[in-house]
Design brief:
Layout (H helix, E strand, L loop, with lengths): L3 E3 L5 E3 L3 E2 L6 H13 L4 E3 L7 H10 L8 E6 L6 H15 L4 E6 L9 H13 L3 E7 L3 H10 L6 E5 L7 H9 L3 E5 L12 H10 L3 H11 L3 E2 L6 H8 L8 H8 L16
Parallel strand pairs: 3-4, 4-5, 5-6, 6-7, 7-8, 8-9, 9-10
Antiparallel strand pairs: 1-2
The chain binds NADP nicotinamide-adenine-dinucleotide phosphate.
NADP nicotinamide-adenine-dinucleotide phosphate binds next to helix 9.
Protein backbone atom coordinates (compact mmCIF):
# COMPACT_ATOMS: atom_id res chain seq x y z
CA UNK A 1 0.00 0.00 0.00
CA UNK A 2 1.18 3.51 -0.72
CA UNK A 3 1.86 6.35 1.69
CA UNK A 4 -0.05 9.61 1.33
CA UNK A 5 0.79 13.31 1.13
CA UNK A 6 -1.36 16.10 2.59
CA UNK A 7 -2.68 18.62 0.06
CA UNK A 8 -3.10 22.32 0.88
CA UNK A 9 -6.80 21.82 1.65
CA UNK A 10 -6.08 19.09 4.21
CA UNK A 11 -7.07 16.18 1.98
CA UNK A 12 -4.72 13.23 1.56
CA UNK A 13 -3.43 12.06 -1.81
CA UNK A 14 -1.67 8.72 -2.35
CA UNK A 15 2.01 9.27 -3.22
CA UNK A 16 1.88 6.52 -5.86
CA UNK A 17 -0.86 6.14 -8.44
CA UNK A 18 -1.43 4.41 -11.75
CA UNK A 19 -0.91 6.35 -14.98
CA UNK A 20 -3.26 5.27 -17.75
CA UNK A 21 -2.15 7.09 -20.89
CA UNK A 22 -1.91 4.53 -23.74
CA UNK A 23 -2.75 1.75 -21.31
CA UNK A 24 -5.06 -0.16 -23.63
CA UNK A 25 -8.70 -0.19 -24.73
CA UNK A 26 -11.57 0.27 -22.30
CA UNK A 27 -11.98 -3.47 -21.62
CA UNK A 28 -8.35 -4.17 -20.86
CA UNK A 29 -8.03 -0.92 -18.91
CA UNK A 30 -11.06 -1.75 -16.76
CA UNK A 31 -9.38 -5.06 -15.90
CA UNK A 32 -6.03 -3.34 -15.29
CA UNK A 33 -7.55 -0.76 -12.94
CA UNK A 34 -9.35 -3.42 -10.91
CA UNK A 35 -6.12 -5.46 -10.74
CA UNK A 36 -4.18 -2.37 -9.69
CA UNK A 37 -6.59 -1.67 -6.85
CA UNK A 38 -6.18 -5.29 -5.78
CA UNK A 39 -2.40 -4.72 -5.80
CA UNK A 40 -2.76 -1.72 -3.46
CA UNK A 41 -3.18 1.25 -5.81
CA UNK A 42 -5.65 3.85 -4.60
CA UNK A 43 -5.00 6.64 -7.14
CA UNK A 44 -5.87 6.39 -10.83
CA UNK A 45 -4.77 9.17 -13.20
CA UNK A 46 -6.72 9.73 -16.41
CA UNK A 47 -7.56 12.68 -18.69
CA UNK A 48 -10.23 13.58 -21.21
CA UNK A 49 -7.65 13.49 -23.99
CA UNK A 50 -6.65 9.88 -23.20
CA UNK A 51 -10.08 8.78 -24.42
CA UNK A 52 -10.20 6.14 -21.68
CA UNK A 53 -12.30 7.65 -18.87
CA UNK A 54 -15.06 5.10 -19.50
CA UNK A 55 -12.62 2.21 -19.05
CA UNK A 56 -11.18 3.77 -15.89
CA UNK A 57 -14.70 4.28 -14.54
CA UNK A 58 -15.61 0.64 -15.17
CA UNK A 59 -12.45 -0.53 -13.45
CA UNK A 60 -13.32 1.59 -10.42
CA UNK A 61 -16.83 0.10 -10.27
CA UNK A 62 -15.41 -3.42 -10.56
CA UNK A 63 -12.76 -2.84 -7.88
CA UNK A 64 -13.55 -4.25 -4.49
CA UNK A 65 -12.81 -1.01 -2.64
CA UNK A 66 -15.27 1.71 -1.66
CA UNK A 67 -15.34 4.79 -3.90
CA UNK A 68 -14.36 7.06 -0.99
CA UNK A 69 -11.16 5.06 -0.52
CA UNK A 70 -10.08 5.71 -4.10
CA UNK A 71 -8.57 8.88 -5.56
CA UNK A 72 -9.50 9.66 -9.16
CA UNK A 73 -7.76 12.39 -11.16
CA UNK A 74 -8.84 13.69 -14.54
CA UNK A 75 -7.95 16.78 -16.59
CA UNK A 76 -9.50 19.39 -18.85
CA UNK A 77 -7.96 19.30 -22.33
CA UNK A 78 -6.53 22.26 -24.23
CA UNK A 79 -9.52 22.61 -26.55
CA UNK A 80 -11.85 23.37 -23.63
CA UNK A 81 -10.18 26.39 -22.06
CA UNK A 82 -12.54 29.18 -20.99
CA UNK A 83 -15.29 29.08 -18.34
CA UNK A 84 -18.22 27.55 -20.20
CA UNK A 85 -16.19 25.04 -22.22
CA UNK A 86 -14.39 23.88 -19.07
CA UNK A 87 -17.63 23.43 -17.10
CA UNK A 88 -19.06 21.41 -20.01
CA UNK A 89 -15.86 19.34 -20.37
CA UNK A 90 -15.98 18.53 -16.67
CA UNK A 91 -19.58 17.31 -16.87
CA UNK A 92 -18.65 15.14 -19.87
CA UNK A 93 -15.71 13.64 -17.96
CA UNK A 94 -17.92 12.81 -14.96
CA UNK A 95 -20.43 11.22 -17.30
CA UNK A 96 -17.81 9.03 -19.01
CA UNK A 97 -16.29 8.07 -15.66
CA UNK A 98 -19.74 7.25 -14.27
CA UNK A 99 -18.90 9.20 -11.11
CA UNK A 100 -20.54 12.08 -9.28
CA UNK A 101 -17.25 13.62 -8.18
CA UNK A 102 -13.52 13.36 -8.85
CA UNK A 103 -10.83 13.73 -6.25
CA UNK A 104 -8.62 15.96 -8.35
CA UNK A 105 -9.36 17.97 -11.49
CA UNK A 106 -6.40 19.47 -13.34
CA UNK A 107 -5.87 22.06 -16.06
CA UNK A 108 -3.86 19.77 -18.39
CA UNK A 109 -1.64 22.48 -20.00
CA UNK A 110 -1.50 26.26 -19.60
CA UNK A 111 -1.67 26.86 -23.40
CA UNK A 112 -0.26 30.39 -23.10
CA UNK A 113 -1.04 31.08 -26.77
CA UNK A 114 -4.76 31.05 -25.90
CA UNK A 115 -4.22 33.05 -22.73
CA UNK A 116 -7.32 31.61 -21.06
CA UNK A 117 -5.80 29.54 -18.28
CA UNK A 118 -6.80 32.07 -15.59
CA UNK A 119 -10.45 31.86 -16.66
CA UNK A 120 -10.14 28.07 -16.92
CA UNK A 121 -8.76 27.96 -13.40
CA UNK A 122 -11.69 30.06 -12.14
CA UNK A 123 -14.05 27.45 -13.64
CA UNK A 124 -12.18 24.80 -11.61
CA UNK A 125 -12.73 26.96 -8.51
CA UNK A 126 -16.49 26.84 -9.24
CA UNK A 127 -16.38 23.06 -9.65
CA UNK A 128 -14.52 22.75 -6.33
CA UNK A 129 -17.00 25.05 -4.58
CA UNK A 130 -19.80 22.70 -5.68
CA UNK A 131 -17.92 19.73 -4.23
CA UNK A 132 -17.70 17.96 -7.58
CA UNK A 133 -13.91 18.06 -7.47
CA UNK A 134 -12.56 17.54 -3.96
CA UNK A 135 -9.28 19.22 -4.96
CA UNK A 136 -8.15 21.18 -8.00
CA UNK A 137 -4.74 21.63 -9.52
CA UNK A 138 -2.72 22.23 -12.64
CA UNK A 139 -0.38 20.34 -14.92
CA UNK A 140 2.63 21.55 -16.86
CA UNK A 141 2.46 24.99 -15.23
CA UNK A 142 5.75 26.90 -15.12
CA UNK A 143 6.65 29.38 -12.38
CA UNK A 144 5.31 32.33 -14.41
CA UNK A 145 1.92 30.65 -14.92
CA UNK A 146 1.66 29.87 -11.20
CA UNK A 147 2.60 33.42 -10.27
CA UNK A 148 -0.15 34.75 -12.50
CA UNK A 149 -2.75 32.48 -10.89
CA UNK A 150 -1.55 33.64 -7.47
CA UNK A 151 -1.94 37.27 -8.47
CA UNK A 152 -5.29 37.02 -10.27
CA UNK A 153 -7.23 34.28 -8.45
CA UNK A 154 -8.05 33.26 -4.92
CA UNK A 155 -6.99 29.60 -4.79
CA UNK A 156 -3.56 27.98 -4.83
CA UNK A 157 -3.45 24.75 -6.89
CA UNK A 158 -3.21 21.66 -4.69
CA UNK A 159 -1.01 19.84 -7.23
CA UNK A 160 1.24 20.65 -10.18
CA UNK A 161 1.69 17.53 -12.35
CA UNK A 162 4.84 17.93 -14.46
CA UNK A 163 7.32 15.90 -16.50
CA UNK A 164 9.93 14.87 -13.93
CA UNK A 165 12.51 12.07 -13.75
CA UNK A 166 16.22 11.76 -12.94
CA UNK A 167 17.19 13.30 -16.31
CA UNK A 168 14.80 16.25 -15.77
CA UNK A 169 14.76 16.98 -12.04
CA UNK A 170 13.00 20.37 -12.25
CA UNK A 171 14.68 21.72 -9.10
CA UNK A 172 13.54 25.35 -9.52
CA UNK A 173 9.90 24.49 -10.28
CA UNK A 174 9.76 21.95 -7.44
CA UNK A 175 11.16 24.59 -5.11
CA UNK A 176 8.51 27.08 -6.21
CA UNK A 177 5.77 24.46 -5.74
CA UNK A 178 7.03 23.59 -2.25
CA UNK A 179 7.30 27.18 -1.03
CA UNK A 180 3.73 27.79 -2.18
CA UNK A 181 2.21 24.64 -0.68
CA UNK A 182 1.71 22.90 -4.04
CA UNK A 183 2.45 19.15 -4.22
CA UNK A 184 4.59 18.25 -7.23
CA UNK A 185 3.43 15.09 -9.00
CA UNK A 186 5.70 13.56 -11.66
CA UNK A 187 4.41 12.38 -15.01
CA UNK A 188 6.73 10.08 -16.96
CA UNK A 189 8.45 9.31 -13.64
CA UNK A 190 10.33 6.52 -15.45
CA UNK A 191 10.96 8.72 -18.51
CA UNK A 192 8.86 6.14 -20.37
CA UNK A 193 11.51 3.48 -19.65
CA UNK A 194 13.96 4.88 -22.21
CA UNK A 195 17.64 5.51 -21.44
CA UNK A 196 17.15 5.42 -17.68
CA UNK A 197 16.78 1.66 -17.82
CA UNK A 198 20.40 1.32 -19.07
CA UNK A 199 21.91 4.08 -16.94
CA UNK A 200 25.21 2.96 -15.33
CA UNK A 201 24.59 4.74 -12.00
CA UNK A 202 21.07 3.37 -11.66
CA UNK A 203 22.23 -0.12 -12.65
CA UNK A 204 24.87 -0.02 -9.91
CA UNK A 205 22.34 1.18 -7.33
CA UNK A 206 19.82 -1.48 -8.38
CA UNK A 207 22.45 -4.18 -7.87
CA UNK A 208 23.52 -2.81 -4.48
CA UNK A 209 19.96 -2.38 -3.12
CA UNK A 210 18.72 -5.58 -4.79
CA UNK A 211 15.81 -3.69 -6.38
CA UNK A 212 14.89 -3.09 -10.00
CA UNK A 213 16.02 0.10 -11.75
CA UNK A 214 12.38 1.18 -11.89
CA UNK A 215 12.11 0.80 -8.10
CA UNK A 216 15.30 2.81 -7.51
CA UNK A 217 13.97 5.64 -9.69
CA UNK A 218 10.48 5.57 -8.17
CA UNK A 219 11.92 5.43 -4.62
CA UNK A 220 14.09 8.49 -5.43
CA UNK A 221 10.89 10.35 -6.35
CA UNK A 222 8.88 9.50 -3.25
CA UNK A 223 11.87 9.98 -0.95
CA UNK A 224 12.23 13.45 -2.51
CA UNK A 225 8.60 14.19 -1.63
CA UNK A 226 7.43 13.87 -5.24
CA UNK A 227 4.15 12.08 -5.93
CA UNK A 228 4.24 9.69 -8.92
CA UNK A 229 1.92 8.04 -11.42
CA UNK A 230 3.99 5.40 -13.24
CA UNK A 231 2.10 3.77 -16.10
CA UNK A 232 2.25 0.06 -16.75
CA UNK A 233 -0.13 -2.18 -18.59
CA UNK A 234 1.93 -5.18 -17.50
CA UNK A 235 0.12 -6.70 -14.50
CA UNK A 236 3.37 -8.11 -13.06
CA UNK A 237 4.86 -4.62 -12.90
CA UNK A 238 1.97 -3.18 -10.89
CA UNK A 239 3.25 -4.66 -7.63
CA UNK A 240 6.86 -3.80 -8.46
CA UNK A 241 6.07 -0.11 -8.99
CA UNK A 242 4.31 0.32 -5.68
CA UNK A 243 6.73 -1.71 -3.49
CA UNK A 244 8.71 1.38 -2.55
CA UNK A 245 8.13 1.85 1.15
CA UNK A 246 10.24 -0.92 2.68
CA UNK A 247 13.65 0.46 1.75
CA UNK A 248 15.48 3.79 1.94
CA UNK A 249 18.16 5.21 -0.32
CA UNK A 250 21.15 6.65 1.56
CA UNK A 251 21.61 10.41 1.24
CA UNK A 252 24.77 9.92 -0.86
CA UNK A 253 22.86 7.70 -3.26
CA UNK A 254 19.99 10.22 -3.48
CA UNK A 255 22.65 12.79 -4.43
CA UNK A 256 24.03 10.47 -7.13
CA UNK A 257 20.57 10.35 -8.71
CA UNK A 258 20.06 14.12 -8.30
CA UNK A 259 23.30 14.56 -10.24
CA UNK A 260 21.93 12.68 -13.27
CA UNK A 261 19.89 15.75 -14.22
CA UNK A 262 20.49 16.77 -17.83
CA UNK A 263 17.41 19.02 -18.25
CA UNK A 264 16.31 16.40 -20.79
CA UNK A 265 12.67 17.10 -21.62
CA UNK A 266 10.98 14.52 -23.85
CA UNK A 267 7.49 15.97 -23.65
CA UNK A 268 6.34 19.30 -25.11
CA UNK A 269 7.58 22.64 -23.82
CA UNK A 270 4.75 24.03 -21.61
CA UNK A 271 5.53 27.59 -22.69
CA UNK A 272 4.50 26.85 -26.25
CA UNK A 273 2.38 23.65 -26.20
CA UNK A 274 -1.06 24.22 -27.65
N1 LIG B 1 -0.06 15.77 -17.39
C1 LIG B 1 0.53 15.45 -18.52
O1 LIG B 1 0.74 16.30 -19.42
C2 LIG B 1 0.96 14.05 -18.74
C3 LIG B 1 1.79 13.74 -19.83
C4 LIG B 1 2.18 12.41 -20.00
C5 LIG B 1 1.76 11.45 -19.08
N2 LIG B 1 0.94 11.78 -18.04
C6 LIG B 1 0.47 10.77 -17.05
O2 LIG B 1 1.62 10.18 -16.44
C7 LIG B 1 1.55 8.76 -16.58
C8 LIG B 1 2.95 8.16 -16.61
O3 LIG B 1 3.75 8.71 -17.62
P1 LIG B 1 4.17 7.90 -18.95
O4 LIG B 1 3.16 6.88 -19.23
O5 LIG B 1 4.47 8.92 -19.97
O6 LIG B 1 5.57 7.29 -18.60
P2 LIG B 1 6.25 6.38 -17.44
O7 LIG B 1 5.27 6.03 -16.38
O8 LIG B 1 7.51 7.08 -17.06
O9 LIG B 1 6.69 5.08 -18.25
C9 LIG B 1 5.80 4.16 -18.78
C10 LIG B 1 6.61 3.12 -19.55
O10 LIG B 1 7.47 2.44 -18.63
C11 LIG B 1 7.25 1.04 -18.71
N3 LIG B 1 7.37 0.51 -17.35
C12 LIG B 1 6.52 0.72 -16.32
N4 LIG B 1 6.96 0.09 -15.21
C13 LIG B 1 8.09 -0.55 -15.54
C14 LIG B 1 8.99 -1.38 -14.84
N5 LIG B 1 8.79 -1.68 -13.57
N6 LIG B 1 10.07 -1.87 -15.52
C15 LIG B 1 10.29 -1.57 -16.82
N7 LIG B 1 9.46 -0.78 -17.55
C16 LIG B 1 8.38 -0.28 -16.91
C17 LIG B 1 5.87 0.88 -19.29
O11 LIG B 1 5.77 -0.33 -20.01
P3 LIG B 1 4.49 -1.35 -19.91
O12 LIG B 1 3.25 -0.53 -19.84
O13 LIG B 1 4.64 -2.14 -21.17
O14 LIG B 1 4.72 -2.17 -18.68
C18 LIG B 1 5.76 2.09 -20.22
O15 LIG B 1 6.37 1.79 -21.47
C19 LIG B 1 0.74 8.60 -17.88
O16 LIG B 1 0.24 7.31 -18.02
C20 LIG B 1 -0.33 9.63 -17.66
O17 LIG B 1 -1.32 9.16 -16.75
C21 LIG B 1 0.54 13.07 -17.86
Amino acid sequence: MTETVALNNGRLMPLVGLGTSRAGDDDSLARLVATAVEAGYRLIDTAAVYGNEAGVGRGIKDARVAREDLFVTTKVWNDAHGRDATLAAFEASLERLGLDYVDLYLVHWPVPSKDRYVETWQALEEIAARGQAKSIGVSNFQIGHLERLAKETGTVPAVNQIELHPYLTQVALRGHDAVNGIVTQAWSPLDKARGLMNDATLTELAGRYERSIAQIVLRWHVQSGIAIIPKTSTPARLAENIALFDFTLAEDDMALIDALNADLRHGPDPDVHA
